[in-house]
Design a protein that fits this description.
The chain is built from 5 helices and no strands. The two termini are 33 Å apart. It is globular, with a radius of gyration of 18 Å. With 149 residues, the protein is an all-alpha fold.
């Protein structure tokens, strides 16, 4: 099942100014993902400096593990795979919890899923020369230190 996503109010997305803001938000977010792909230790240091309860080696390990989930991204980072979306919807409709309830009770309408704004963000990033696929990404070897320090 898909887990992390960016959600927006479909009524607000009727407004072109809101659409522009959404694209800018996605552009910045995806640029940050690519930056942390290429600068994992620096991103780790930023998080630790701001008061993470986890130590530097644990944060670097975590950054590395997240990067392995995201990269490479053959279709472009941030794009939702339609097959994975449909599988998630099917599981959410058909899998009952201990109380006999499902995560959702009806098929989402057509506005529940789009790559329109993420694609615009990717196009902007490609225009800046940013690698949005991360095909050359190689995970680091991270040594966890006792206590995550």
């Amino acid at each position: 099942m898909l887990q992390d996503a960016v959600w927006a109010n479909s009524e607000k997305l009727q407004d072109s100014a809101f659409q522009d803001t959404a694209v800018k938000f996605l552009t910045g977010s995806l640029k940050g993902w690519a930056y942390c792909r290429d600068n994992a230790a620096e991103c780790r240091d930023l998080v630790v400096k701001r008061g993470s309860k986890l130590g530097a080696s644990h944060q670097l390990w975590q950054m590395n593990e997240v990067n392995k989930l995201v990269w490479p991204s053959p279709n472009g980072v941030g794009l939702l795979d339609e097959t994975a979306w449909k599988q998630t919807v099917d599981l959410s409709l058909g899998t009952k919890n201990q109380d006999g309830q499902t995560v959702i009770t009806k098929q989402p309408d057509g506005t529940a899923y789009t790559n329109e704004y993420a694609q615009k963000a990717l196009d902007a990033l490609k225009g800046e020369g940013l690698d949005v696929n991360g095909t050359s990404f190689q995970p680091a070897t991270v040594e966890l230190k006792e206590g995550g320090a």
